[in-house]
Write a structure and sequence with these properties.
By secondary structure, the chain is an alpha/beta fold. 30% of the residues lie in helices and 21% in strands. Helix 3 packs parallel to helix 7. The protein is globular, with a radius of gyration of 19 Å.
Length: 230
């Protein structure tokens, strides 16, 4: 059996595995049990009772975290030359079309979000094999296919994130970094979970949020009481 490091063992002992914590308690505790030396991501994992095979239950959406993500996201914008300056002025890290398409086809994915103007989507379609598996393919539902490329870049830089349900009916999202105050983490987590509550499909039967867990990178998971969510 692998030996558990002292820091991790101490962190594990601070988390009561049999308890369902309130959202406020969990955001304070996740900072306390962090074991990394770097500014780790704080992530929420929601196990739902949905069936992602059903189109109306394959949840996908966006939320703007009120306190930001704590990470500067690198944004790539695919657009025609008349939109390039708009994207650059908004802070896009990479802007262009044919040259960038060729680069991505070659395997380059050194970016976090892709925004595309509608009139270039026919060209972008060929990148599905590269961008799709990484969750980077632009999509109108997440606001990343839009004629207003500047506004889309501003949204991403301002804390807007996208999420989607996976094949196991779980939704994962970062809600900040361990350097955030517990209050800022609470504000972000509350906004994310409240958004999910509003998105509950009318066809969903039974329990919508079966379990909610928060954890920082390489630290123990903390179970949250779904009833504490507004």
């Amino acid at each position: 059996m692998a030996r558990v490091p002292k820091k991790r063992k101490a962190a594990n002992e601070k988390v009561d595995r049999s308890k369902l914590y309130s959202l406020q308690e969990a955001m304070a505790l996740v900072k306390e049990v962090n074991t990394t030396k770097f500014d780790a991501s704080v992530d929420i994992h929601v196990r739902t009772g949905l069936d992602p095979r059903k189109p109306d239950q394959a949840l996908r959406g966006t939320v703007t975290l009120p306190n930001g993500t704590g990470k500067t996201k690198r944004v790539l914008v695919f657009c025609t030359s008349d939109k390039e300056q708009e994207a650059k002025d908004a802070g896009a890290d990479y802007v262009g079309l044919d040259e960038l398409i060729a680069k991505v086809q070659g395997g380059w994915t050194d970016f976090d979000v892709v925004v595309a103007a509608p009139n270039v989507m026919a060209k972008i379609g060929r990148l599905g094999r590269v961008l799709g598996p990484r969750g980077l393919m632009p999509n109108p539902k997440t606001g990343t296919v839009t004629p207003n490329v500047g506004a889309a870049v501003n949204d991403v830089k301002g804390g807007k994130i996208s999420f989607r349900i996976d094949k196991n009916a779980i939704i994962h999202s970062s809600v900040g970094r361990v350097s955030f105050s517990a209050e800022k983490l609470l504000g972000n987590a509350d906004e994310f979970l409240s958004t999910l509550m509003k998105m509950k499909p009318s066809s969903a039967k039974g329990i919508y949020m079966k379990s909610i867990t928060v954890a920082s990178t390489m630290s123990p998971g903390i179970k949250i009481d779904p009833k504490s969510i507004k």
